[in-house]
Amino acid sequence: MKICQVWGDLSSEKSGENYPTDLFCDECFESMNPGKEDSGIVAYQDDDGSFGDTCSSCGKTTDEEEE
Ligand SMILES: [Zn+2]
Predict the structure, then answer these.
(1) What is the 11 CA–ligand 1 centroid distance (Å)?
(2) Above pLDDT 90, what percent of the chain?
(3) Whole-model pTM?
(4) Measured in angstroms, how far is the CA atom of residue 2 from the centroid of ligand 1?
(5) Distance from the CA of 65 to the center of ligand 1, in angstroms?
(6) What is the pLDDT of residue 46?
(7) Relative to the CA of 64, which of 14, 35, 49, 51 has its CA 20 to 30 Å away?
(8) 67 pLDDT band (50/70/90 cuts)?
(9) 59: alpha, beta or left, given left = phi > 0 and alpha = psi -120 to 50?
């Protein structure tokens, strides 16, 4: 799991919606092309538990990912 800050709604006046931060599983993280020019990811860090244990994209949990 990775905690990722992604491109959101740039027209929003709330900074939390411009670059929302959420938890993503490794699979969804890789599908966003981390480090590439067309990546949907602004920044990322290792999961520290502060965003729960469920991928915000596909709903996979930390336990399921480790199986
Ligand atoms: Zn996922």
Answers:
(1) 26
(2) 90
(3) 0.88
(4) 10
(5) 9
(6) 96
(7) 35
(8) confident
(9) left
How far, in Å, from the CA of 27 to the mean position of ligand 1?
A: 6
Ligand 1 center to 61 CA (angstroms): 8
pLDDT of residue 22 exceeding 90, the answer is: yes
Contacts of 45 (CB under 8 A, 6+ apart): 2, 3
Cα R_g (the chain), whole angstroms:
12
Q: What are phi and psi of 44, to 5 degrees?
A: -150, 160
What is the Å distance from ligand 1's center to 54 Cα?
8
Mean pLDDT, range 41-50, rounded to an integer = 96
What is the spatial distance between Cα 32 and Cα 39, in angstroms, rounded to a whole number? 6
